[in-house]
UniProtKB/TrEMBL annotation, chains A, B, C, D:
Pathway stated in the Swiss-Prot or TrEMBL entry: Metabolic intermediate biosynthesis; chorismate biosynthesis; chorismate from D-erythrose 4-phosphate and phosphoenolpyruvate: step 7/7
Keyword terms of this UniProt record: Amino-acid biosynthesis, Aromatic amino acid biosynthesis, FAD, Flavoprotein, FMN, Lyase, NADP
Name this polypeptide is given: Chorismate synthase
EC number assigned by the record: 4.2.3.5
The protein's enzyme class: lyase
Species for this entry: Paracoccus tegillarcae
Domain of life per record: Bacteria
CDD domains, alphabetized: Chorismate_synthase
Protein's UniProt keywords contain Hydrolase: no
Cofactor: FMNH2
């Protein structure tokens, strides 16, 4: 199985190193006849790209995406779509003095152990730069979903940053795009900003937790037993750089619950069955129930901080490492659009998987 | 992609419904020349099977596994291994009066919506009975690992059951197999037993959290970007019935950490690099580092409790549901051997994936 | 990728050795709600099984197929279908004195070189006994196709046996099931029978060529560039034991043709486009055109003949080998139902692949 | 499964339309540490590219390949390699008046029926231009094989062109690169040239047959039952544009043979077993035997000839079609380097597949 390909029906393969000439995604399995152009994808790139606020990394990339194939006269042809993004602001010299050091908390050492030869500049293939390609692929997925599932809505937002937690009572989706934290609570933005300024000045970094809400997903998506919808959503998020935990619905909290609290009871309405609660997070037995799907994941803090750390280099010498250059005090912020992209890819993938096996026909109830 | 197949090199496809004549696993990609027989696999089946303590379900299955192919004169041939387990104690009458009801918290309704036709007896394919087949496949994986990675050790245990948490200070791996909870703390067993008796008498159930520790995994396993070792471990656990969250290392707790706390510093020893801590949980950039790998997941409480619940049936009528019959007050207990089996399958899969691409040769450091 | 799995959406994995207790197929990706029972599949098994005429092998197997999962109350559930066939007439002693010899023309030696350990009895996994499992899987495919493509008709027949060729002028599909050769020409049956009797008495064997005609296949099936319909049909036939060549339409003969002869001109009729010829064999650019699809393949002669042959054994000793026991003077005869089964699996697979990507909607012409 | 991806371990996904800005291949699963640069791949591109002789198409493309990722400091990193070739000489106006016509013998009509929307310029994705990307991927495979199997030698050549057949008695591999036909017989080149000149002047085209000889392939490659080496070689060749038949060893001729003629007897030598003949074409039971592997395939004549043909357009109107512009009177010539590339990819793929399952260890004989 491709190690750099995600998906089963709607598939994309990403390529490119952080400091190579370009990176991109080869997207295959795309339904034909879908309206798509570079500007449409670019909107998703812009939400992600570095340099959009003082809190994210200072590397300035335009992240302009080009479509090199698979689209003709504004519509997809069903053939592979090559998306390419050129790297313009690599600043290789930033990494000059740690060229062969293995940075603690980074994949440098494991890549060296596995491959024996790596492009170390900027972390090479292990860099989060790769997520730019995912977001581009996610843009294609969104274009298809806009046509096949017009009621679908995917919304990502931060729920935690270090010591700070989202106040769910104050949840306001309308605030998400108006602050640099994708925070659904305008009243907390100043506190979050002050907090992160403090972290940066301490030459430190913090972790984060992000939640993605999927509304309007039809029932019946998911393919038990080993392509369950929650399995694929979990894998999608876990594959993002620095992710350490994934939850669906109640998540790790389900361990403390009792059966009386946890089961979502069912009633019948004019439009069919409906549930009285949603502890399941919209997925039962690996198949969507029609309710809101809730996925949440944690991102560990950035390791490339500028306080000295004990490390080794590729000669096996013990060194003290200070990483200079541009780094995020909280990489979690930029993962929000990446998570939305992954969710879009998974939902579309499962829509196509479902129609392969069942033709999209649903079983009757009542 | 097979929806009922797990793995990329070492692959198994499970089949069988809870109340069908049999269930099993077709295991492919097995290295030849490995010592294997039914008794070896049976030991793993026995750890899992129902009726082994008063706290697990009262369905009495021998779970005797038969090897129908792929093994000759006690050694694997490299051809597919068919493992079959006959169902002997279905008690279809237990499910008689809920035959067409959709039990809250179960996959009944989503299976009906997706497939339109389901084997409802005992939950059919959505039943945790399927995990018996996984454990059998895991037995094959363990046999291969015993030969290819003799230092590997996979240990699963409970860390939480409802309101009770493992006291990590008292951690004693030697206690795990001496109590019905796979609890690594002999001193807490009585409390856990009393607690669960209370839950059962209340006609209720509780969730659980399980941890799997993998020791002796070599560095270099895992295939970025979309077959990372942690991604596959997460997917493996998330695919188990009733799992709602998965964590690697610090897991969801990484969101609250700072960079100074989180990075595992590196030093050089006589036998190569070593780390001063293990917040990463043994995996960096999706590739194993040689340190202990720690995976943890939550299981939601059983829904099949005997207190009345509001539900509907397949005619669309609203009903009140009491499920009689045999049920687990805590399904999490039986998931421990299942989790170990999944971990074994993932590690072996990645060992073979790695040797496909790199021949198993590691890069030099120093 | 599974090495023992065929297909992409409609997939089956075969298992079982020639002299093991059983063999079978695990079929996954099956649409739900399709009428299916053992008797339906058994009709395809009966067309194939040994001992049905004096000209095929004398091993007497009932080839009774059992359905162990995936079907409930006479309809498929969309979950994996386990098909099992028990071996009852192995006659292991027939192979006693060649137990460790490598028979010329057989896979004995290559299996030993690759795997190092093999079940040598009856050829183990390399035996054509495996095709019984394919035919069972093909039966499931036929059941689905009967519902999804009721106009589809798959007909296999012999076109050559050693020195004898089908007289295409006398082609009569109605004759196929009335003679032991699946020959579409009743007038030639006696000649074929006499010829083959002569071959057997000479302790020799002959090759064969088989053609499969697929009528009523809708246009649009096939997924360029690497899952073209003709590619998958070729792979399907080439995977059958002893196949050495595969042709689509004009086949190898296309090398001698000119462009003026070869292109199929297009006209417009009341029901849409139609072609004035069919040199293409029903497939253009890897996609079906709606015309009859013609696939043809050759099978080499059986090697297990009873005249002495120079060989070696697994000690590396040179020996003279006479194979006793039951053998086919022409294995090609029994491959006809196998080829039909493979064609059914491929067509169904592509039907599902197509509906995944396009929803089955066709582009307009005129 | 990716519809535009070839391979299982060593995989490449091609992308790009004939008249798009570029085309290319995303190559994944590449072993790290292999010496590779653009010049190495370019040599294979140059053997294939149009305009290299008066007999091949007049479209002039430099086919300069760029490596955009996966290689660092001259060695592969084990990460995906993006190969890109820019299109520079599309001459879209050549296709102006057949923009919406469906050319007989081409995939225009089937693409329209399947996808509903196609890039018609130059045949879009169905054009043989796609094979340039295959050849680039084949170049990467060759670089890896040079390191892993230095004794391997892959040689492609023409064996038939229309009415002309290679005289095998005069076979001389040294002549292949010295004439525009890749013909291994210098004495016949003038006849072939005169013949093809005649075809072109008649505004016609001819088919061809090509053979690929693989020498030095180790025994044991191939993964029965559904990833047999011959199955994958057949699929590889059948996937090339305009291929209609594929043969291994004796091919279709095996149908006429008897068992006494066909089996390759086995003897024992100082270096292990050897065969007295090679009717099998180097593959037994789907696994390589160590002997020369012989694959042969036919290519149908070009349909884009300039004599008028009856066709229809996408409005459903009947038309007479004359295709102007640049066309090959024999596309088979340019398929020789493509076939070599495909063979390289298959052999490498199987080498990696084998080492995944067996670690590359061979079974002992004697």
């Amino acid at each position: 199985m491709s190690y750099n390909t995600f998906g089963r029906e709607f598939r994309f393969t990403t390529w490119g190193e952080s400091h190579g000439p370009a990176l991109g995604a080869t997207v295959d399995g795309v339904p034909p006849g879908v309206k798509l152009d570079e500007a449409y994808i670019q909107q998703f790139m812009d939400r992600r790209r570095p340099g959009t606020s003082k809190h994210t990394t200072q590397r300035k990339e335009a992240d302009a995406v080009r479509i090199l194939s698979g689209v003709f006269e504004g519509l997809t042809t069903g053939t592979p779509i090559q998306l390419m993004i050129e790297n313009t602001d690599q600043r290789s010299k930033d990494y000059g003095d740690i060229a062969r050091a293995f940075r603690p908390g980074h994949a440098d050492i494991t890549y060296q152990m596995k491959y024996g030869h790596r492009d170390y500049r900027g972390g090479g293939r292990s860099s989060a730069r790769e997520t730019a390609a995912r977001v581009a692929a996610g843009g294609v997925a969104q274009a298809v979903l806009a046509q096949l599932l017009p009621d679908l809505k995917i919304t990502g937002y931060m729920v935690q940053m270090g010591a700070l937690h989202l106040n769910r009572e104050a949840f306001d989706a309308g605030a998400i795009n108006d602050n640099p934290f994708f925070l659904p609570d305008a009243t907390a933005v100043q506190d979050w900003s002050d907090y992160l300024d403090g972290i940066r000045k301490d030459q430190n970094s913090v972790g984060a937790a992000i939640e993605v809400l999927v509304q309007g997903c039809p029932a019946g998506l998911g393919a038990p037993v080993y392509a369950k919808l929650d399995t694929d959503l979990a894998a999608a998020m876990m594959s993002i750089n620095a992710v350490k935990g994934v939850e669906i619905g109640e998540g790790m909290g389900a361990a403390a619950m009792t059966g009386t609290d946890n089961a979502d009871e069912i009633r019948m309405g004019n439009q069919g069955p409906y549930f009285l609660s949603n502890h399941a997070g919209g997925i039962l037995g690996g198949i969507s129930s029609g309710q809101d799907i809730v996925v949440r994941f944690s991102i560990k803090p950035t390791s490339s901080i500028t306080t000295p750390r004990r490390a080794i280099n590729d000669k096996g010498e013990e060194i003290e490492l200070i990483t200079k250059g541009r780094h995020d005090p909280c990489v979690g912020i930029r993962a929000v659009p990446v998570a939305e992209a992954m969710a879009a890819c998974v939902i579309l993938d499962h829509l196509l998987m479902d129609r392969a096996q069942t033709g999209g026909v649903r079983g009757q109830i009542g």
